[in-house]
Amino acid sequence: MNMILATLLICLSLCTNLHSKRSLIYDSDGNIDDLLAFMFIKELNEFDLLAVTTTGNGRCHSDFVGQNILDFLSQIGMRDIELSDKSSTSLSCVGSYPRNDRTLCDNLSYISLKKSNQKTSTVISHQLMINKINTSTNPVTIICSGPLTNLGLALLTCPSIKKKIDHVYIIGGAITVPGNIQRAFNGSVNVSAEYNIALDVRATQIVLNSGLPVTLIPLDLTHQLESLKSMIEASTKNQSKCLNTQIILSLLKPKFFPNIQSAITFSSIFAVLHVLNSKIGSEVPMKLQVNTVNGPQYGQLLTCLQGANVGVCINANKSEFLELFFENLSSH
After folding, report:
1. With pLDDT > 90 as the criterion, what percentage of the chain qualifies?
2. Most buried in the list 151, 167, 175, 271, measured by CB within 10 Å?
3. β-bridge pairing 214-217 and 140-144
4. Three-point CA angle 182, 58, 228, nearest 5°
């Protein structure tokens, strides 16, 4: 009898482990795209969101990013997620996103959200990341949607956390397409680099050289996803007016500024979905390093034999992405 009971308990434990949620830390730069990523994290019900950390040198200014995210999380029913908007300055300290981009993100594309009463954490972002990784009972996946300052600092401060990090997803870089800076940056006109990498090349070096499993979601793939915007908008309009579809439409076409360019690229949603289903974008193994030499290629990701091993999502499986997108969009 005792043997049967012990066997049943072991089986129950195995089944529980098989269905345990994936521990996740989301390092956000406050991009509007991230708001939709949080919505999908909730709907997928496959993640244990340990914390949200924010970068002060991303698209959204540090004065706005924490409250914006908390307001949105509260609206979609994700309350009591610990969030730190107290971030360190870039380890490289060069440049910033264009003012218009930052204003758009500061104001959430001018959509209106009810203010959350939740307060941001008193712990600085990279330390909160360290704390959550060290206390997690499961390996932790990290999605970085902006400059890699927080993760770089976390690895510098506490290298032992590498043992408990399962995978890192980086949204940034440009491999076969021009970068998105396209203006004077760090003393030169730069058309090669992408902001998330160029805004903190030292942190990028630390993360790439850490030996952690890294998947890169570069501009190459972002441009492909942006081509789906009109299709997603049209299909969303035809669905029932649930909260999720209303949020999608309000961000795609802000009510009071219908002609304003939406900042949604779907790359953050892609990152969340790719964690669970790699079929939506095949990874090409590459050896990458970041150019740290001042000049027109500063911050560009380069392929070289001495580079770090990185899985790069160059091409999206659009049909697979759209299927997962709509499958998880209107579950409520």
Report:
1. 58
2. 151
3. unpaired
4. 65
Cβ partners under 8 Å of residue 306, min gap 6? 287, 289
Q: CA-CA distance, 188 to 186, in Å (whole number)?
A: 6
* Residue where the block lists tokens 């770090």: 308
pLDDT score of 34 = 92
Cα Dmax for the chain: 77
Higher confidence at residue 263 or residue 34?
A: 34
Q: Phi/psi at 200 (nearest 5 deg)?
A: -155, 80
Phi, psi of 124 (to 5 degrees): -65, 150
Residue ranges in the chain assigned as alpha helix (H): 2-18, 32-44, 62-75, 99-106, 125-135, 149-157, 195-198, 201-208, 219-226, 229-237, 243-252, 267-276, 318-329
pLDDT category, 258, cuts 50, 70, 90?
very low
Structure tokens at 229: 């915007």
| Domain boundaries, given as residue ranges, for the chain | 21-230+264-329
CB 35 within 8 A of CB 251: yes
Domain 21-230+264-329, CATH: 3.90.245.10
Please compute the mean of the pLDDT values over residues 5-22 and round it to a whole number: 56
Percent of residues, the chain, with pLDDT higher than 70: 84
85/121 Cα distance (integer angstroms) = 7
